[in-house]
Design brief:
It contains 17 helices and 13 strands. The protein is an alpha/beta fold. The strands form three sheets. Strands 1-11-10-9-12-13 form a six-stranded mixed β-sheet. Strands 4-3-2-5-8 form a five-stranded mixed β-sheet, with helices on both faces. Strands 6-7 form a two-stranded antiparallel sheet. A hairpin with a 3-residue loop joins strand 2 and strand 3. Helix 10 packs antiparallel against helix 13. It is globular. The structure holds adenosine-5'-diphosphate. The site of adenosine-5'-diphosphate has 14 residues, from helix 10, helix 11 and helix 14. Adenosine-5'-diphosphate (ADP) binds next to helix 10, helix 11 and helix 14. One of its GO terms (biological process) is glycolytic process.
């Protein structure tokens, strides 16, 4: 091991490398703002700023029963949302596991499986009567599809490429709503799909039903992304028909911010992670913030510190050297530990990293490192929210609401407070007092159902 003083310096340098002072946050926000503008003006910009073709916001008075389908990972959900007016709603949801065999191969098999689940759901929850009593004899459905699509209208979008273990090559370039509708027809399921929705847009619209001052939906989960309300005149690349409201909900895809490496202060650990990822130089902002990556950044920093003799008596273990072996959820456990002996921290290190014995100093150093990495994620999330609020020119005098969902936001201790504190640093206390950052509940399902309701009303 190196002499203590040298190890101390290495440790403090590592900690410092994760700090983002206020001025740096502002600089990043300024660049992000200009990247939003760039994305609104042309296709192919790093931040894609995708028009959702949804524009109407709920009034809180919408009523009726609408279905939603939420496809984005291993599970997919079918929901029936009963809008009761006054911002109140009930959700009944069933989860289905998509068999691996349906995730790859011909798209018809995948969409047939999904249609089968919808058929079963309609049967289980006795929704045929609801369908029969509607004007069209059908149930109306919104489809949350968390894969990149080139949206062509509120109910049309072609899949750009698969991710997350899905690979049905014949679906790429096809309209996923068409494929779903055809599969439903094959089973004579009386459901009409009227909206194709990104989960961020769903989160925005769902929260606006309860809180009409909502202007932004944000996801801090496996990845990160946000959607907001934009003036159509600002979407200079838009070639579609004008909307009655003169507004458009934009899915920013902000996770791609600064893939050109201009302003984000990357540490050596961020660079290593990016280099070994299967999407190098892409989603760089997302890699500093989201659940998929925070644990791995921490693991890399830990390895560096052990090698420098600053931790664990300089001894490495196999899990410590295993890519993605340190989960972001462990960071939550570590941060939640306020016991004097940091027992839970020791437990995580023993159970998950095979570091059997640690000193109190080891555990304190690990906790401070984790805090630093978690805090950086919260501060950068605040930068994104701030830049997007600036783009909207809000808040002026009226309060606004930002709706947030995702496990990092929900489960990471202190994340919410740190994000709000960083917003106060960026905006000043008076302006920040007009911004309420709130948890969105059940956004992706409810939002899709609401957008289906709004689309339905327009016809
Ligand atoms: P998704 O974003 O895919 O819809 P989630 O919002 O549940 O799903 O996010 C899942 C991500 O959250 C995973 O990357 C995981 O690492 C992370 N995660 C899960 N549990 C926790 C936790 N307790 N604290 C922090 N992050 C967590």
């Amino acid at each position: 091991a190196l002499p203590t003083t040298n190890a101390d310096k290495i440790y403090s340098d590592v900690l410092a490398s994760f700090q983002i002072p206020r001025d740096k946050m502002r600089l990043i926000a300024t660049h992000m703002y200009s990247e939003f503008v760039r994305g609104l003006s042309a296709d192919g910009a790093p931040i894609r700023m995708i028009p959702s073709y949804a524009y109407a916001m709920p009034t809180s008075h919408e009523t009726g029963v609408y279905l939603a389908l939420d496809l984005g990972g291993t599970n997919f959900r079918v929901c029936a949302v009963t809008l009761k007016g006054k911002g109140q709603f009930d959700v009944v949801a069933d989860k289905f596991t998509i068999p691996d065999s349906a995730k790859v191969g011909p798209g018809a098999a995948l969409f047939d499986f999904i249609a089968g689940a919808v058929e079963q759901f309609v049967h289980t929850h006795d929704l045929s009567a609801v369908a029969a009593s509607s004007a069209t004899g059908e149930l109306t459905m919104g489809f949350t599809f968390s894969f990149p699509v080139k949206q062509e209208s509120v109910a049309r979008g072609a899949l750009m490429y698969w991710a997350k273990g899905f690979d049905c090559p014949d679906v790429v370039g096809q309209d996923v709503v068409d494929l779903l509708q055809v599969a439903l027809a094959r089973r004579a399921v009386k459901v009409r799909v009227v909206a194709l929705v990104n989960d961020t847009v769903g989160t925005l619209v769902a929260h606006a039903y309860k809180a009409p001052a909502t202007v932004m939906g944000c996801i801090l989960g496996t990845g990160t992304n946000a959607a907001y309300i934009e003036q159509l005149a600002q979407v200079t690349k838009y070639r579609g028909t004008p909307t009655p409201t003169g507004t458009m909900l934009i899915n920013t895809e902000w996770g791609a911010f600064d893939s050109e490496g201009k302003v984000l202060p990357l540490t050596q650990f961020d660079r290593e992670l990016d280099a070994m990822s299967n999407n190098g130089k892409q989603q760089v902002f997302e890699k500093l913030i989201s659940g998929m990556y925070l644990g791995e950044i921490t693991r890399r920093a830990l390895v560096h510190l052990v090698e420098a003799g600053a931790l664990f008596g300089g001894k490495l273990s196999t899990p410590l050297q295993t890519v993605y072996a340190f989960e972001t959820a462990y960071m939550s456990t570590i941060e939640a530990d306020t016991s004097p002996a940091l027992t839970a921290v020791g437990q995580v290190l023993a159970d998950h990293l095979a570091v059997a014995s640690t000193t109190l100093t080891d555990r304190q150093l690990v906790k401070s490192l984790v805090q630093q990495i978690g805090t950086r994620a919260a501060r950068l999330s605040a930068v994104g929210i701030f830049a997007l609020l600036e783009k909207m020119g809000v808040p002026e005098s009226k309060p606004v609401v930002v709706a947030v969902d995702g496990s990092v936001w929900l489960k990471y201790p202190g994340f919410q407070d740190r994000l709000r504190a960083a917003l106060r640093e960026l905006m000043g206390p008076e302006k920040a007092a007009l911004v309420s950052v709130e948890t969105a509940h059940d956004g992706s399902g409810t939002g899709a159902a609401l957008i289906a309701a709004l689309v339905d009303k327009q016809h």
